[in-house]
Amino acid sequence: MPDTQVRAALEKLPHFRNLPRELLDALAAGSRVLELRAGETIFTQGTEPTGFFAVLAGAVRVYRISPDGREQVLHHLRAGQSFAEAAVLSFGRYPAHAIATEDDSRVVEIGAATFLKLFREDPRLSAAMVGSLCMWLLSLVERIEELQVASAPSRLARYLLRLPATGAKDPLMVELPMAKKELAAHLAIAPETLSRLLRRWQDSGVVETRGRHLALLDSRVLIAIADREGEEAS
Amino acid sequence: MPDTQVRAALEKLPHFRNLPRELLDALAAGSRVLELRAGETIFTQGTEPTGFFAVLAGAVRVYRISPDGREQVLHHLRAGQSFAEAAVLSFGRYPAHAIATEDDSRVVEIGAATFLKLFREDPRLSAAMVGSLCMWLLSLVERIEELQVASAPSRLARYLLRLPATGAKDPLMVELPMAKKELAAHLAIAPETLSRLLRRWQDSGVVETRGRHLALLDSRVLIAIADREGEEAS
DNA sequence: CGGTGCGTTGACATTTCTCAACTGTTGTGG
DNA sequence: CCACAACAGTTGAGAAATGTCAACGCACCG
Questions:
Q1: Local structure of residue B9 (DSSP, 8 states)
Q2: Contact between chains at A74 and B144 (C-beta distance less than 8 A)
Q3: Does the pLDDT of residue A68 top 70, yes or no?
């Protein structure tokens, strides 16, 4: 039975980690793993939820299309993160689109029917979902803080400083989780502005860029830029 | 016993409305009503949660102070809305400040200890909390959408169009729930820009302003401004 | 009646966007 | 394997939006 794969997947999710065996088994029975290539759709804005999802491998983008056709990226998700919980629990329709953004992405879908039944019966599962929703809240609040900062340099500096370090920490290395074009949209600035900011900082020795890999050479300057309303280096 | 007041207050909250009697009674036992004047503090960023809250009357502002001292308003709350659920359920500290912004505001505090005990025992209560958290998620996502729109006219138009109508609907009347200065901060624009936008729209007959009361005379133009990347009325 | 603070208005500086051209990389089909 | 298309990224120049600074009117409050 293929459920062992699903079961193992569920166990690894942060918010399901502490659930008892039998509950995980029951959840697994109503779940399935999807294998996706870059660009494949997971669900579509406005449709009725068949379940909620968690990323096992690869990456997923959640975005909305506004009435006039512009695309607004709400979130980028990587292994261990779940999404569309609220659609299943409360909204009754997906409020956004979701697609895989990398080849060989794997996503587990926790079926709505099974899940809702268990959710109503078992307080441990509802507690787990509450934890999950709270994490979402926190990340959205941080996102709002980021966007409320007026100047583009501030927004970018804040964003860079919040990225998880990859590898060494003295010359602090980070990796952009998306294309620069998308990052620009995420920060609500034009791609050209993003490019110029990085260029300027590179020229003044604050950062060093190699594709999506950045070295934050002088984080004190970056912190100053993030805190003030945006400013020069040196 | 003064619990009848608390009890009646809890009954009116949207997410507690469907809870059974005994559960409401138990919650009420751990809750209390606060009477506040404008400017009085409800809780402070970083402190340990004593409970979460719901507005019964008046208004509450939730805001954060960033490292450099600027104030970022996260939300304005009115009767029926609850807040700080996540602080109690998950974070273990208040992630923001909350103050009353009107005289004679009334707020009910649902004590953390009592609440958490009931929450862990009763799936109906956890379901109610999930509903509450989902509402928060939705409003934050809308807020992000609002902020991601580049132009100031768009952001303002969107905001105005989402305000609930007060009174008549043909000349659509709305009321700003906060001072214009604060609204400007909310939309991440300068107060002067806000003033000039409203002036321009008034001159072109799109809106009519009388203090915090606005008449949206031509919502089609407003919708166009909201959808495009912001532009003239003519 | 003077103070305090919001809201408005004007002039100006600056940031940021837009448009356009050019580069470099990637992937595809011949 | 190469040529070419497609697209992200960069750079420049000019335009437009927005912020800043400063002054003033106006209401509210002691």
A1: H
A2: yes
A3: no
